[in-house]
Amino acid sequence: MSESKSAALRKYFLSGLIALLPLFITWKVLTLLFVTIDGVLGPRIDALIGLAVGRAIHVPGLGLVATAALVVFIGVLMQKVLFKQTLELFEGLILRLPLVRSLYNASRQIVAPFADDAKLPFSKVVLVEYPMVGRWTIGLVAKERATAEPDDDRMVVFFPTNHLHLGYPVVLSRHDVVEIDMTVEEAVKFFVSCGVIGDENLLRSNGAHLPMPGARA
After folding, report:
1. How far, in Å, CA of 154 to CA of 131, rounded?
2. How far apart are CA 69 and CA 87, in angstroms?
3. Which of 38, 85, 176, 198 has the most Cβ atoms closer than 10 angstroms to its Cβ?
4. CA nearest neighbour of 112 among 86, 144, 140, 83
5. How far apart are the C-alpha atoms of 143 and 211, rounded to whole Å?
6. Which residue(s) pair with 205 in the sheet?
7. Around Cβ 126, how many Cβ atoms within 10 Å?
8. CA–CA separation, 143 vs 158, rounded Å?
């Protein structure tokens, strides 16, 4: 085989691999999820059905459906105050266990970006030229006014890390804060992803580009 044909063959093989690999990975992940989730309740439900009909039986996907129904049922119960208080009590017990506490907190950080905005204790997303001129830092407005004084124009801005429960609040003048067109949920995803997830809204203020370093809006 000539060198040109060999190079062409390698090129075609690589192109085919690039085309098929995402499909294969997607299929494997979905298969793994199906087998794992279905395997939680599936065998138990199959056993109950087998007792009812008098013979062994297997219904693929039944465990997956049952798990989804259970999750929805828990979601409905979460709307009930008594159940929510019971869950919070159980959560408090978990947070007292050293190793389990770390795992649970890490899991909560993964889920937090997908929570409702209403559950997040912040009102707006802002950019501040902080900690020095020319370096913009994204923050979340924790309090619109630092005090109850009518002439106090200061506000409290929280600068979190990618671990949302870690960070520091800073009292800033309202004139030093630039509100940006980004929701709190989008900002949380930005923090958790270490800045990977985000769009051009981060560099805009009310539809206009932010000023150059050292200049004020």
Report:
1. 17
2. 19
3. 38
4. 140
5. 25
6. 208
7. 24
8. 9
Residue 132 lies in a domain: yes
Task: Report the C-alpha gap between 49 and 42 in whole angstroms.
Answer: 11
pLDDT digits (tens, 9 = 90+) for 111-159: 655 555 445 567 788 888 888 888 888 899 988 888 888 788 898 999 8
The SS3 assignment for 81 reads helix
CA gap 111, 139 in Å, rounded: 20
- What is the dihedral sign for C-alpha 104, 106, 110, 115? positive
The parent domain of residue 205 ranges over 121-209
Residue 8 exposure: Cα atoms within 13 Å on the Cβ side:
5
DSSP bridge partners of 125: 140
- Tokens 């190079």 found at: 7
pTM: 0.42
Closest CA to 115 of 180, 187, 64, 199: 187
Domain count, the chain: 1
**What CATH number did the domain enclosing 203 receive?**
2.30.30
If we measure between CA atoms, which residue out of 115, 45, 113 comes closest to residue 78? 115
By the 8 A CB rule, do 135 and 215 touch? no
Beta bridge mates, 178: 127
